[in-house]
Amino acid sequence: xxxHKKILFVGGKGGVGKSTSAAGIALxxxxxxxxxxxxxxxxxxxxGDIFHKKLKNSAKEVYPNLFAIEISPEEEARAYINQxxxxxxxxxSSHMQDEVNKQIDAxxxxxxxxxxxxxxxxxxxxxxxxxxxxxxxxxxxxxxxxIRLLTLPELMSVWIDGLLxxxxxxxxxxxxxxxxxxxxxxxxxxxxxxxxDRFAKVRSILLNTSLTGYIFTLNPERLPILETKKAIEQxxxxxxxxxxxxxxxxxxxxVQDPFWKNRKENEQAYLKLIEQSFxxxxxxxxxxxxxxxxxxxxxxxxxxxxxxxxxxxxxx
Length: 316
Description:
11 helices; alpha/beta
């Protein structure tokens, strides 16, 4: 088995240091000479800002052995729609093509279109592009989006099953009435079946605990603790288990200033709550830095804090 999981998803509430955690883990792996891909699926991308690099939809090296992508949902949606149009070319008559394209363009502006396109790119990264990397780290959007994203393979497989069943009945009726009962070739059915097969492969990878791990980042504060607890319970219903937490921005033990002493006492209660609430998860505690992580050198220090907990990290 590989020393680390091939794929890691890093989630958490907005503002807790989720992107920094994902970047820190990716940096740690890259320093171990593992060719690593860091993928941001969060529309409010931060990865490029952390590395002071302008990132796009294609992989760009931001550090030796470390490549990064910021997926643009709009760009993916345009490519997705063009692919759909290409798939149906030749399936409908030429005089119907323009009308069908208009319908597809209208559908592209409906809610969920960009989400579907984003998901397709993630599937492509896992099944196709991922073979070029030793590790893939996903920096996901805040918690609600993460749950939606990780449960999409299951939800979309059910949806495609319905489409396939309806398509199968249509083809059977057509075959009986117009083709003397002989089976007909249906490119649309084949496209749907192909998508179903890919979703099934991705779902299998996401549920394979030897290949894929899940990490949540939180701060020792009430709202991040509550949100993390709900997220872990929701994902568990879909057989996705979060085994590691990064507890970020923990105050140093020795503080003298009355303001910070009060904050530390308050934090102690939340640290105790974290230990009681997340009995099944390993915890990596990262101290509060005296500045935000705004440079690669600071990220290296952050990454070092994670690697010092390597035994916990390996157990994810």
